[in-house]
Input
Amino acid sequence: MDNSESLSGGGETPSRHAARLINRLDRLARAADHRGGLNPAQRDALRYLGRANRFSRSPAALAEYLGATRGTVSQSLIALEAKGYVRREPHPRDRRAVTLGLTAAGRAVLREDAGVALLAEAVAAGAGAEAATLARLLEATLAAAIARNGGRAFGICRTCRHFRADAHPATSRPHHCALLDVPLGEFDAGAICVEHAA
Ligand code: SF4
Output
C-alpha cells in the first residue's frame, strides 16, 4: 500500500489509527450523501426507516438510533415529508402514537444510496475476500461503542432472545415476538428493532 494513511506515524496506537481511518471513510461517504438534494441527516433517517420494523419507526426511536436530539430529527422528518419521501401512519399498537413509513419515492432514493454504494465499492476493492472479516470486526467495534454510550443495540430481530422462529407455520407471519406477543413476517425477522435484546 503506497497510501500515506497506511502509516500510523508519531507513535499513534493501532486503535487510534483505525479510528482515524473510520472517521475519514465516514467523511467521504457524507460528501456523497449530499447528492440529490438531501443532507446526511436526512439520508440517515431514510436508511433507518428502510431497515426498522413497524414497532421501531417512531421519531423517538430514530433519534436514539442516530444519537441525535429530537429537535434535529424532527427537522429532518419535516423536510423528508415535504419532499414526499416519508409519511406518517397509525401506530400498530398505540392509537395515540404515529409510525413513520417510506413512500415509493423514499424507497427509490434508498435504492440509489450513493454514500453506502461508495463505501461498499471501497470495501470490495480494499478488503476483497476479507470483507466478511472486516464486517465482523466493525460489528464488534460498533457494539463496543454503543455499550460505552449506554445506548440500545438495535439488533436484527431474528437474533433477539424474544424471537420464536416458525411459531405460526403456513401463515404470512410465521414467526413470533414473545415480548410484544405479535406474529412476525419475514421482513420483520430481518429488520432492526428498538426492543432487541441479545
Ligand atoms: S423478537 Fe425482539 S427484535 Fe423481534 S420484534 Fe420482538 S423484541 Fe423486537
In short: The chain has two domains: 13-149, 157-190. The longest helix spans residues 14-33. The radius of gyration is 19 Å.
